[in-house]
Amino acid sequence: MPNILEIVQPDDWHIHFREGDMLEMVTNYSSRINNRCVAMPNTKVPITDSNKAILYKNKINKASKDKFEPLIPCYLTESLDINDFRSGIQNKYFFGAKLYPSNATTNSKYGVRQISNIYNLFEILEEENSTLLIHGEKVSDKIDIFDREKYFIDDELQIIRKKFPLLKIVLEHVSTAYGVKYIKQNKNIAGTITPHHMLLTKRDVFISDKIDPHHFCMPVVKDESDLIELRNAACFDNTKFFLGTDSAPHPIEEKKSNANSKPGIFSAPCSIELYTQIFDQENALNNLEVFSSINGANFYNFSHNDKKIKLEKKDWIVPEFSVYKNIKVKNFYANKKINWKVIN
């Protein structure tokens, strides 16, 4: 087994940069590894027009110390300016569009309540060969939090695919065996897989009458059987799956052990190392590069990155916190040992 692993530079096809000082901190971590990142548009004021997308991209670029390409999807709402949306897609101001069902996750209150009301936007995406990125959860008081992904697939996604068969779709942070199976069986659809969905189960989150706020995310992690299928999809049968960390920081004071905790796991300080350790555990290191650096670029019709990165097999401890200016965020895998480390 090699002690040095060299792979094509990865891309992160799903990450939250947030805003202000937090954006600067996240950019520093993310640009240390990745060439491209899809920056989620669910900022406090969501990115719903071309001007907002341009400004947000410029802020991330300004914060980056290295060559780095942020890609900004349009945050879909039922009241978008259609002309601006089409123009933003055509001129590449928008990197496709992101569907947030209303109240599914952080800053999704502006999201879509009735998906049929935005079919005209899907038509534009399909015509322009642009991608629909989906937070695939159906939110209802009648639906268990662990079943949201399945209900979204059955009640919403299947209808979208039938009406728009040529529309390219990414089911982001797929979290269930059901979701993995659906992606494998259907055309024009791919999925991103996070490290935390391959490392945690609901027993790590829901403890008695409390939650572990630093393991709490949306979609929530599921059962061990789901974790196993996600590992298999990423590490072996991985043509349609690629890296998307869904690294989503919140200040420490906003992460509480009750229902008021904000969902989100911050893995950017150790993301590629975690993926590498998972692939090593599955005896699949030879497939890491395909998952982290090839599949996503292929799906989105990008060239592969020219640069390479090296990882060394050596133990290190993830710091408990990331601190930047007045921000303090608890890191995922805090105080735990990882046995791979980026060395360049």
Would you summarize the structure shown here?
With 344 residues, this protein is of the alpha/beta class.
Per-chain topology:
Elements: E1 4-8, E2 12-15, H1 20-30, E3 36-39, H2 50-63, E4 69-71, E5 74-75, H3 82-90, E6 97-99, H4 119-127, E7 131-134, H5 148-163, E8 168-171, H6 177-185, E9 189-193, E10 206-207, E11 210-211, H7 224-235, E12 241-243, H8 271-281, H9 288-299, E13 308-312, E14 316-317, E15 321-324, E16 327-330, E17 337-338, E18 341-342
Helix pairs in contact: 1-2
Structure description:
This protein is an alpha/beta fold. Helices cover 30% and strands 17% of the residues. The chain has 9 helices and 18 strands. It has helices at residues 20-30, 50-63, 82-90, 119-127, 148-163, 177-185, 224-235, 271-281, 288-299, and strands at residues 4-8, 12-15, 36-39, 69-71, 74-75, 97-99, 131-134, 168-171, 189-193, 206-207, 210-211, 241-243, 308-312, 316-317, 321-324, 327-330, 337-338, 341-342. The strands form 6 sheets. A 6-stranded parallel beta sheet has the order 5-6-7-8-9-12. A hairpin with a 2-residue loop joins β10 (206-207) and β11 (210-211). The mean pLDDT is 95.
Gross morphology:
globular
Kindly state the number of beta strands.
18
Question: Over all CA atoms, what is the radius of gyration?
Answer: 19 Å
Count of discrete alpha- or pi-helical segments spanning 4 or more residues:
9
The CATH topology, please?
TIM Barrel
Which CATH-level-2 architecture?
Alpha-Beta Barrel
CATH superfamily descriptor: Metal-dependent hydrolases
Low-pLDDT residue intervals, each spanning 5 or more residues: none
Q: Within the largest sheet, what's the order of strands?
A: 5-6-7-8-9-12
Strand content: 15-25%
- How many domains comprise the coordinates? 1
